[in-house]
Amino acid sequence: MRTRRGVTVVAVAMTAALALAGCARDTGGGGGAQGGAQDCTRNQPPAVSGAAAQPAPEPARADASKLKVGLAYDIGGRGDASFNDAAAAGIDRASAQLKMPKATEATAQPGESEDAAASRLRQLVAGGHNPIIAVGFNYAGALSDVAAQNPDVRFAIVDDDTVSLPNVTPLVFAEEQGSFLVGAAAALKTTTCKVGFVGGVDNPLIQKFAAGYEQGAKAVAPNIQVDTKYISPAGDTTGFNDATKGTEIAKGQYDGGSDIVFAAAGKSNQGVFSAAQTGGKQAIGVDSDQYNSPQLAQVKDVIITSMIKRVDVSVYDYINAVAANNLTTLPKRFDLKVDGVGYSTSGGKIDDIKPQLEAYKAAIIAGQIQVKSTK
Description:
Layout: H1 10-20, E1 70-73, H2 83-97, E2 104-107, H3 114-126, E3 132-135, H4 140-149, E4 155-158, E5 168-171, H5 175-189, E6 194-201, H6 204-220, E7 225-232, H7 243-255, E8 260-264, H8 269-279, E9 282-287, E10 303-309, H9 311-323, E11 341-343, H10 354-366
Parallel strand pairs: 1-2, 1-3, 3-4, 4-5, 6-7, 6-8, 8-9, 9-10
Antiparallel strand pairs: 10-11
């Protein structure tokens, strides 16, 4: 069970503030840059007075036993140890807790046309599936056409809110908020005062991860250097499935002085983690708790935390809402207030800085820190 709509209160924030008071340097295990050239003085997080927020009530579990759910994955599908696996976890939870029959799953292929995506969705419609969940913004164009042609079928799309049809529900996130927290973690843990970011594709969605990460890092250490690079340009989605290129880019960042790299690159994250392992460095995962991904068992020791994007929560909550015939229970955006994004603590590598991270989290929930979605 996840912590439902968890909130951090003043006690945590004050604990962090007291722990940091008078400690402008080396907070959370980080030192200055190699050779001492880079000033990596660290700030303390703001203290939050009163409760940061109230938890949103959890909707009652509906009976989904009569639903026939279709799920269209993005490239990589179930088993990518990242974005798609998070959606799969939501489906699995709905089956276990809402009595939902096993869903029909289909997966996009690298380089496929929009017609192929539309054909996949039409096949799910023809098979009597309702609702149908499209995982990823790449389905937006195809979904717009298919949903318009099938107004009696309910659709949801993850990571896109451009399809304005009454039978389409967007499942979107405040990625920048979760990325802020892992950026803060990187700044608290770095020993070189230089960290990296590897994005799968240089598009507005992945730029949100980069923007939040840099804001979080600089909120802690204003003089920290953040080396941001992307595997493929906008419009080329191969960056989400190119571990070799992920290794190449991350190696360059590690060789250039970054000691921690945040990877938001789908299946290409595996390449970043391999580079970290080879270089004796550290990395940050994305979407799922990648430390616990079976596919990443060989490299998990380099993963200090992951930016959790609760696609599983959004998929589960959507199915529950459809089963209850009440979509008004869904948030407009899955953010920190509703447990839609966050960070992982598996492996215990950031246990020593958790009070500081929770203080920043409380400040964001309370509105004391406004995280921008662009740089």
